[in-house]
Amino acid sequence: MKVIKLFQSHDKLIKNKINGILDAMSSTDDEYATYLIDQLIEYIEINYDGLYIDNAVYKLLEAKFWLDQCELSYQATEEIEEKK
């Protein structure tokens, strides 16, 4: 007889969702990762409030900024390589 566990704890569900988002971000291009960060920020701002939440949103915005900077740096490097 096989037992199927249908219900998980709330923390386990959140952890699985976060792991899914991280997998999606690491296996796709930077543009999609930026889109996912925007969606996370929007979801958090709509559904939660407080100092810790504000700090989390700030960190997500910072991550998005650095991701954009990396993309710009990569594009500049490609342009330099093409000119050679």
Question: How is the topology of this model organized?
Answer:
Elements lengths: L9 H17 L3 H18 L3 H33 L1
Helix pairs in contact: 1-2, 2-3
Attribute tags:
81% helix, 84 residues, mainly alpha, elongated
Helix content: over 70%
Shape type: elongated
Secondary-structure-derived class: mainly alpha
β-strand percent reads: under 5%
The H/E string reads: HHH
Report the end-to-end length measured between terminal Cα atoms. 67 Å
* Number of separate helices: 3
Residue-averaged pLDDT, rounded?
A: 78
Give the tally of β-strands. 0
What is the C-alpha radius of gyration, as a whole number of Å? 18 Å
Low-confidence stretches: none
From the structure provided, what is the oligomeric state, counting identical versus distinct chains? single chain
Largest sheet: none
Structure commentary:
- By secondary structure, the chain is mostly helical.
- 81% of the residues lie in helices and 0% in strands.
- It contains 3 helices and no strands.
- It has helices at residues 10-26, 30-47, 51-83.
- 1% of the residues are buried.
Short description:
This protein has 84 residues and is an all-alpha fold.
